[in-house]
Structure formats: C-alpha cells, structure tokens
Write a structure and sequence with these properties.
Immunoglobulin-like; 4-stranded mixed sheet; about 20% helix; alpha+beta; 10 strands; 2 domains; 6-stranded mixed sheet
Length: about 180
C-alpha cells in the first residue's frame, strides 16, 4: 500500500498489484487523477469515470478505483504504469482543493535472481550427470573373483619344401589378430 494522500514516491513490483491510497475520505469530495499530464479519471458523487485514453478494455481490466477507501488498484502492474501521477481533491461544499504528486516506479525482477537460479540449475545438472557417470562406471567396472581363464590358440606350421609348393590360385595375405582375455 502506497500512501499517496500527499506528495510521495512509491514502488511497485512488475506483475504484482499496486495499491495507491489517493484519499482517505471520499464523502463530499471530488477527485481527479492525471498520469503524465493526461487525465485518467474523475470521481464525483461516488462514481468514477475514466477518460478516453484510459477508457480501454486493457486499462479497465487492470485499474480499479475503490470509492469506499479512496484507493486506486492497478493489478497486475506493468512497466508502462510507472510515471508521475497528479492527484487533485476538491471539497464539494467549499470548492477548496489540494493537489499532490505521486511518482510511481515499477520494478522488475532483480537481474541477479534469474542468473543465480540458472547457475544453481546448471550445478544441479552437472552433479546429477556426474553421479550417473560414477555409478555407471562403478557398475560396469568389476574385478573378477576367480582368476581369468586362459585362452589360447594352436597354430600348426607345416614345413614344405619350396619346390613342392605351387600356389593353385591367387595368393592370400596373412591376417594377424590380437587375442585378449575376456573381461
């Protein structure tokens, strides 16, 4: 709640409601509100009438003047709502009036907050990925309890004399392979 019954500077949060208490007692008073020197609305005889620039669906869905307590509610606040508001209050019986100015600032999220959230999310992803990798490697890396089986190959070499050997077709290359124990 911003006490805007006198000159004031008020802060609102982007996307949240802003409550501007423009006057305390509306009985027997008229109220006129201007935004950056443009007439917003006039309140008289417990009835508020919004002027042309502010008599739009987008504004009327978000702006409401509560005559019971003299409060303007802007919900949700948008960046374009920030600015200078001039309040003019006139007593109906005497015609005496008073004016005051309200400077409204609409603040968005602190830029540090989204960066911090992103950093925490990134760290969580790295931790989860590291944990998954650790358990995967631990599961797939084991030391056998029994000694490894011996695998071998028998190679018979038949010696022939050179003159007995006549290739019957194209000669084939020798293929080498490396034999490793099973894991």
């Amino acid at each position: 709640m911003c006490d805007a019954t006198q000159d004031a500077a008020c802060d609102g949060a982007l996307g949240e409601p802003v409550y501007l208490q423009l006057m305390r007692n509306t009985k027997g008073h008229q109220l006129s509100l201007h935004y950056n020197d443009i007439a917003v609305f006039k309140f008289r005889n417990f009835k508020s009438v919004f002027y042309e620039d502010f008599n739009t669906t987008s504004v009327l869905q978000r702006w409401q003047f509560v005559s019971d307590n003299g409060t303007m509610i802007i919900n949700p606040a948008e960046r374009r709502d920030a600015g200078t508001y001039r309040v003019e209050i006139t007593e109906e019986t005497t015609g005496r009036g008073k004016k005051h100015t309200v400077q409204l600032t609409i603040k968005g999220l602190n830029p540090v907050v989204p960066a911090l959230v992103s950093l925490v999310f990134l760290l969580m992803c790295v931790c989860v990925a590291g944990g998954v990798f650790y358990f995967y490697r631990r599961k797939n890396t084991h030391t056998p309890a029994a000694p490894e089986e011996l695998h071998y190959a028998v190679v018979d070499i038949i010696h022939r004399r050179q003159e007995d050997y006549e290739p019957s077709g194209p000669t084939q290359d020798c293929v080498y392979a490396q034999v490793q124990p099973r894991q």
